[in-house]
């Protein structure tokens, strides 16, 4: 066969066969004889196998394999074959741009002969797909990954090509008439074949050094090719994008707790993290053209999954509108998925309420029945009582509920706090607890319900009030950790002003912003926080949000230790709770989507668990739910607001119900 | 307002002895029987005149409960004066003075002037601690002593101002290093230009609201 202009034959050998059905069907196994050539096409060395124009063989082949997929394998990237979805765009582009007869240089074709062409094929077809006859191979040697040499009385070779995703193995070429050695010798002139120690029959192709273009092409393997292509298309974006990534990696590698670590370690070890980081760069061009996305195939720790309480009748009903239509269906499904449905009866809930009520009054009777004589000999009880007496008179006295010398609110506040001493005598009463109880009692208007709500709230807050205030110290450290991540310069500034311990946030944390906000805003904030959403320790992000708004003033005015404390102390009633919550949630989302979050922060915000509900408090709360409060059909705007803002999980259900009760009272009166 | 010196004070003592009421009486000249208990620390300021010099008092009022002690200690730092308050109607608040004093001495600078205050002197009928006991304790520990009533304002001005005078004298004697803010003293912008027309020890007191 004559060579077309533009390429020359470097090697040619006839009588090379392809077994079209080597395994499946004995009788239909057919041999296609053909000619194997190595061609030089403008410096690109290609291998071509072309069947002889043997009509009988082709026809037999077609008849036997009409519906077989054997002929369909390979990378069919011609127009008539579907480009698969995961194919990198650049290859498609490349393909479309080549419309010469050599458009198969980067493709592999192994196609059955079209049956309608079977009769009179032209003797010398150009090797375009449309005109190709029989089973043929055609590929550039630069695409060759390995050659497997087998003996079966005769030699046969199996070529494996480099592929974008995986090696493509071509059908074996059988040298029934000998000549495989000569072919391999010739092949060695153009590619470097090295034997594999693990598999002696395998000759692997090493990157070629003969032609500059070729070796360059070999460099363009999957990872870098896209980068270079992109570089030529959009050098600025590609370069800056690449630099930014390196910057991020170096920044990450050198900042944070690692810094001290690096400094302490011997020089020899210092390079290790970098070596680990940089070769690990895995560039993925497919997800976001224009910028590389760093993919880590680390699947991470399998998260802990939490179940929740079953959905009770009450919760079910709250998802029904007054006409009986179900609302929030997807949410309801989610909650049922998480816990199933509760089948407690009204009677069961009534009996639970009775039990909790009994329990409360039993504990109340305990302190009520202590005589003066007994108390004289019980200094702890005496101290608690005297402190509670004092503090009840100093808690929210401007609120109408606690106003006046003998307001019933004051008595309830006192009694619930005293009963809590009986419930948890180790803790007893600590200043700040009256602030935590006051809003709950105000909303519940019932000492039993308020007490059990308070118990649940205290479960969360308990550590803050313990002897050495360990909970407070922990929270301040956690807050510092978050602040450092969010705003290193402000964090440094505070440290330089001897305020790095963040004691100026003490009151915020101890009584959850109770003194910093108006009463309705406190209720709002607590409702929000009791959902346990959007992350653990959300109140710390609320602190960060407030500080984020104040830092400019603090830093611009160069406030010192005293001024910072004074400034923060004077914030009450100047804060916009809506804006703060918005910012706090935004920070949460920002951190959640950050891939390189320090472990400490992940831990603090609970991103490593699926816990989204405040768990401990919800149980008793759920049980404390009442079954007897039908939702008013026409609530006022304010009440509607109050009710709809409670999520149906967690202790706030209680407040929600309470809010409904408050409404009922208003409705009746 | 321009001042010659700024003195930082701290008020300490058991919970409920009237620390916040003393501060409010001093800064706002009023008694508020109903006010929220102190969580953490609260702040007040007032301008006074000593020896013709405008002196700003910056006063930190701390929470009294034992549990908060580990945190409130940090506020001792950098205070020039301390008011150590007990309640004359509650002996236990007097009994705890030693602990308070140890704590204060340990966590403040050694030159801090401490004024011992027996508050609620208006409640004579419920008195549990004699005035002589307070005087004796003060003498024993080298403190200044006064009985006050935040309710009637008796001796409240004097308590704050006498403490300031003591600090001022220490400055004159060169005991305090006024250039070190950790001593709780700051030189104000007005220091050099002392106005002689304002001379007289306590004459020119002015209620200075919340300005810093």
Automatic annotation (TrEMBL), chain A:
Region span, Disordered = 111-133, 611-655
Primary site of residence: cytoplasm
Highest taxon of the lineage = Eukaryota
Query: Which GO CC annotations does the UniProt entry carry?
Result: cytoplasm
Residues forming the Rab-GAP TBC domain are 357-533
Transmembrane among the record's keywords? Answer: no
Please list the residue ranges that the record marks as compositionally biased, kind Basic and acidic residues: 620-629
From the Swiss-Prot or TrEMBL record, state where the protein is found.
Cytoplasm
List, in alphabetical order, the Gene Ontology terms for molecular function in this entry. Answer: GTPase activator activity
Matches recorded under PROSITE patterns: TBC_RABGAP
Q: Which UniProt keywords apply?
A: Acetylation, Cytoplasm, GTPase activation, Phosphoprotein
Report the InterPro entries cross-referenced here.
Rab-GAP-TBC_dom, Rab-GAP_TBC_sf, SGSM1/2_RBD
Primary role: Acts as a GTPase activating protein for RAB7A. Does not act on RAB4, RAB5 or RAB6.
Oligomer status and interactors: Interacts with non-phosphorylated form of RAB8A; phosphorylation of RAB8A at 'Thr-72' disrupts this interaction. Interacts with ARMC12.
Question: What is this protein identified as?
Answer: TBC1 domain family member 15
Q: Which organism is it from?
A: Coregonus suidteri
Automatic annotation (TrEMBL), chain B:
Pfam families, from UniProt? Ras
Classify the source by domain of life: Eukaryota
- Biological processes annotated in GO: protein transport; vesicle-mediated transport
Predominant location:
cytoplasm
InterPro entries, per database record: P-loop_NTPase, Rab_GTPases_membrane_traffic, Small_GTP-bd, Small_GTPase
Query: Quick check: keyword Protein biosynthesis in the entry?
Result: no
Q: Which UniProt keywords apply?
A: ER-Golgi transport, Golgi apparatus, GTP-binding, Lipoprotein, Membrane, Nucleotide-binding, Prenylation, Protein transport, Transport
UniProt xrefs under SMART domains: RAB, RAN, RAS, RHO
Q: How does it sit in the membrane?
A: Lipid-anchor
Location of this chain's protein in the cell: Cytoplasmic vesicle, Secretory vesicle, Acrosome; Endoplasmic reticulum membrane; Golgi apparatus membrane
| Cellular component per GO, a single term | Golgi membrane
GO MF annotation, one: GTP binding
For this protein, the record's NCBIfam families field holds: small_GTP
Family note = Belongs to the small GTPase superfamily. Rab family.
Q: What is this protein called?
A: Ras-related protein Rab-2A
């Amino acid at each position: 066969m004559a060579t077309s202009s533009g390429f020359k034959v470097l090697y040619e050998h006839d009588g090379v066969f392809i077994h079209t059905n080597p395994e499946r069907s004995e009788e239909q196994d057919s041999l296609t004889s053909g000619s194997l050539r190595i061609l030089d096409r403008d410096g690109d060395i290609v291998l071509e196998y072309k069947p002889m124009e043997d009509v009988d063989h082709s026809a037999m082949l077609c008849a036997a394999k009409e519906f077989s997929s054997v002929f369909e394998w390979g990378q069919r990237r011609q127009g008539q074959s579907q480009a698969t979805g995961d194919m990198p765009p650049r290859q498609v582009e490349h393909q479309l741009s080549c419309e010469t007869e050599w458009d198969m240089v980067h493709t592999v074709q192994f196609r059955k002969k079209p049956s309608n062409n079977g009769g009179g094929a032209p003797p010398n077809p150009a090797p375009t797909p449309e005109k190709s006859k029989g089973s043929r191979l055609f590929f550039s040697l630069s695409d060759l990954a390995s050659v497997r040499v087998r003996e079966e009385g005769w030699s046969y070779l199996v070529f494996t090509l480099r592929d974008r995703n995986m090696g493509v193995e071509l059908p074996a070429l059988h040298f029934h008439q000998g000549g495989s050695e000569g072919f391999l010798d010739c092949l060695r002139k153009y590619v470097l074949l090295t034997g594999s120690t693990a598999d002696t029959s395998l000759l692997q192709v090493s990157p070629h050094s003969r032609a500059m273009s070729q070796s360059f092409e070999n460099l363009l393997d999957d990872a870098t090719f896209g980068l270079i292509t992109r570089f030529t298309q959009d050098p600025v974006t590609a370069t800056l994008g690449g630099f930014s990534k390196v910057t991020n990696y170096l920044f990450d590698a050198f900042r944070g707790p690692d810094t001290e670590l690096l400094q302490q370690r011997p020089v020899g070890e210092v390079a290790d993290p970098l070596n680990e980081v940089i070769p690990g760069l895995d560039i993925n061009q497919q997800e976001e053209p224009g910028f590389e996305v760093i993919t880590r195939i680390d699947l991470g720790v399998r998260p802990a999954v939490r179940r929740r309480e079953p959905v009770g009748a009450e919760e079910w009903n709250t998802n029904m509108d007054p006409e009986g239509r179900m609302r929030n269906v997807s949410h309801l499904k989610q909650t049922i998925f998480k816990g199933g449905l509760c089948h407690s009866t009204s009677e069961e809930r009534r009996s639970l309420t009775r039990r909790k009520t009994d329990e409360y009054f039993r504990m109340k009777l305990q302190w009520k029945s202590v005589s003066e004589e007994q108390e004289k000999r019980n200094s702890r009880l005496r101290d608690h009582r005297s402190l509670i007496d004092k503090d009840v008179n100093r808690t929210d006295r401007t609120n109408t509920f606690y106003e006046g010398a003998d307001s019933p609110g004051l008595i309830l506040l006192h009694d619930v706090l005293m009963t809590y001493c009986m419930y948890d005598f180790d803790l007893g009463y600590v200043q700040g607890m009256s602030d935590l109880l006051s809003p709950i009692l105000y909303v519940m208007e019932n000492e039993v319900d308020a007490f059990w709500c308070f118990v649940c709230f205290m479960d969360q807050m308990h550590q803050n009030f313990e002897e050495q205030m360990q909970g407070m110290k922990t929270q301040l450290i956690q807050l510092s950790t978050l602040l450092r991540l969010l705003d290193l310069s402000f964090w440094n500034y505070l440290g330089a002003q001897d305020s790095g311990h963040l004691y100026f946030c003490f009151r915020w944390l101890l009584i959850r912003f109770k003194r910093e906000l108006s009463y309705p805003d406190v209720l709002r904030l607590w409702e929000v926080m009791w959902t346990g959403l959007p992350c653990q320790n959300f109140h710390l992000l609320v602190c960060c949000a407030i500080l984020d708004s104040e830092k400019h003033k603090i830093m611009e005015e160069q406030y010192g230790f005293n001024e910072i404390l004074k400034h923060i102390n004077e914030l009450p009633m100047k804060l916009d709770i809506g804006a703060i919550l918005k910012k706090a949630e935004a920070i949460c989302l920002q951190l959640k989507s950050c891939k390189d979050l320090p472990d400490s922060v992940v831990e603090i915000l609970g991103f490593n668990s699926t816990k989204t509900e405040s768990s401990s408090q919800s149980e008793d709360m759920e049980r404390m739910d009442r079954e007897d409060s039908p939702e008013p059909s026409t609530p006022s705007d304010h009440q509607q607001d109050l009710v709809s803002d409670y999520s149906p999980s967690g202790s706030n259900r209680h407040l929600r119900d309470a809010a409904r009760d408050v409404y009922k009272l208003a409705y009746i009166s | 307002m321009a001042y010659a010196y700024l003195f930082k004070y701290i008020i300490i003592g058991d919970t409920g002895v009237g620390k916040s009421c003393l501060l409010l009486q001093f800064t706002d000249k009023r008694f508020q029987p109903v006010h929220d208990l102190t969580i953490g620390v609260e702040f007040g300021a007032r301008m006074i005149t000593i020896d013709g010099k405008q002196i700003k008092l910056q006063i930190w009022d701390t929470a009294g409960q034992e549990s908060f002690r580990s945190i409130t200690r940090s506020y001792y730092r950098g205070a020039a004066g301390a008011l150590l308050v007990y309640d004359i109607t509650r002996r236990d608040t007097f009994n705890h003075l030693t602990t308070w004093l140890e704590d204060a001495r340990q966590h403040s600078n050694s030159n801090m002037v401490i004024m011992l205050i027996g508050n609620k002197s208006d409640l004579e009928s419920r008195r549990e601690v004699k005035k002589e006991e307070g005087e004796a304790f003060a003498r024993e520990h080298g403190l200044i002593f006064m009985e006050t009533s935040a309710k009637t304002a008796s001796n409240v001005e004097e308590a704050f101002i006498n403490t300031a005078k003591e600090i001022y004298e220490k400055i004159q004697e060169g005991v305090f290093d006024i250039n070190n803010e950790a001593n709780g003293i700051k030189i104000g912008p007005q220091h050099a230009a002392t106005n002689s027309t304002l001379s007289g020890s306590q004459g020119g007191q002015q209620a200075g609201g919340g300005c810093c």
